[in-house]
Amino acid sequence: MGMLDWLRLIRVSGLATIASNTIASLAMFADDLKPYWMLAPIRHGEVRLLWVPLASFLLFASGMLWNDIHDVERDRVLNPRRPLPSGRVSLPAAYVVGVIMSVGALFAGYMATEEHRIGFYSVGVVLSLALLYDFSAKSIPYLGSLVMGSVRASHAVFVLLLLGPEYVKLVLGISHDPRHPPFLLSYPLILGIYIFGVTLVSELESRRARRWELLLGGGLMAGAVGLACVRLVRAHWIVDIMNQYQPAGPVLIAAAMTVALVILVALVLMVSRPFLQAMKTGKQALVGSTVRAALGGIILLDALIATSGHPLAGLPILLLFPLFRMVGSFIRMD
Question: Is the pTM of this model over 0.90?
Fold first, then answer.
C-alpha cells in the first residue's frame, strides 16, 4: 500500500478543478477592481473560513473513494490493476478512510461559519448527493448525470461561505441584490449544466448509445459555455474600468476581453475536436477522449466565468491547468 495508490483513489489531479470551481464561484461577487478582493475575508481575521477548502478537499476525496469502493467487484473484471481490486489498498482500510473523510467534511463545514447549521447542512447536501451518485444514481441513464451536475453545483454554492452565509442565500434566490446577475446566469447553475453534459457523454463509454445522445451531452456543454459568454459581455467591471481608468479604460477592457477570447477559443477547440470525431465515426473509444478533454475544460470554463466577475480572476485559474495535466499524467488510474 503506497501513497501513490491513495492519490490515485482520490483522483488527486481533479482537486485542481475543485480549486478552479472555488475561485470562479467567489469571483461572481467581486465588487471592486482591487486585485486582492478574494483574500478580503481572511485579511479581516476570519481564519475559521480556512475550514471551507478543507471541507471541499474531503468532499471530493471521499466522493471518489466511495465511488471506487462501490465499483470494486466490477473493477476486479474490468480494471484489475486499480488499487482496490489489485489489493494494493485493502478494502477495509478504504472503508475506514472513507468514513473519516466524510465525517471530517461535515465537521469542517460545521466549523466554517459562526452560523454552524448553514455550513453543516451545506456540506450534508453535497455529501448526500455524492453518495447518491456513487451507490445508486450513476447506474441510471440521465439521472446519474443530473445528480453529478447537482453535486458540483451544490459545492459551488457551499464555497460561498468563504464570503459569508448571506452569499449562499443570494445565489439560491432567497435574497436579492440587483448588482449581481439573475439566477439563470449564476455560476452554480452554469457549472451544473456543464457537468451534466460531461457526465452524460461519459455514460456512453459503458453502454450502447445513439449519436443524438452524444449530441445532447455536447449541447449541454455548449449551452453552459454560451451562458458564460453572456455573463462576460454583461460584466460589471466594464463600466467600472471605463469610469475609473480614463483614458486607458478602453485599452484595459480590450486586453481583458482578448484574454477571455483566447480562453474561449482554447476551450472550444480542446473539446470540439474529439467530440466531432466521435460524432462523425460513432466510435466509442473517441467518447473517452471527449470526456478527458471536457474534464480539463472545466478549468478553462471556470477561468472564463471568473473573468466575467473580475478581469484578473481568470489568471490564477489558468495556472491550475498545467498542474491538472501534469499531475494527471503522472498519477493516473490504471
Answer: yes
